[in-house]
Amino acid sequence: MSSNSIHFFSEDAPYVVKQKKILRNWLLSVVENEHYALEELNFILCSDEYLLGLNQQYLDHDTYTDVITFDNSELTKTVAGDIFISIHRVKENAIIQKVKVTEELTRIMVHGTLHLLGYKDKTKADKLKMTFKEDDYLQHLRERLNAL
Length: 148
Description:
CATH class: Alpha Beta
CATH architecture: 3-Layer(aba) Sandwich
Distance between the termini: 25 Å
Helix content: 40-55%
Number of domains: 1
């Protein structure tokens, strides 16, 4: 499929994603570079409370988080999923990391996408591998943005 299969929504926290076309093409390139086919990818930006409710209901975790990924794919090597992102956590993380909100948001977007591509982050080794991938793909995005 095409980058038109990547959608951005705001559930209960007003935030407008900018440069959607660039982000769609970048995320599609991430999926394709990992040798997967894109079916559909939905990014839902929401509040801390909304994401906490999902965390409690579906994962039995009573903690705040920045992202929860739901894999809806039915075929191997195919990406179909919903990535819920707390815009409140993104803003707070951006302050802590001393980066722009848009940079932190793209990091969380690629993090959720990598989960759908089979990457894990529970062990130290898995986390290192995932962080390396995140950094690599974020560098690709920066290069795209600098080329404009």
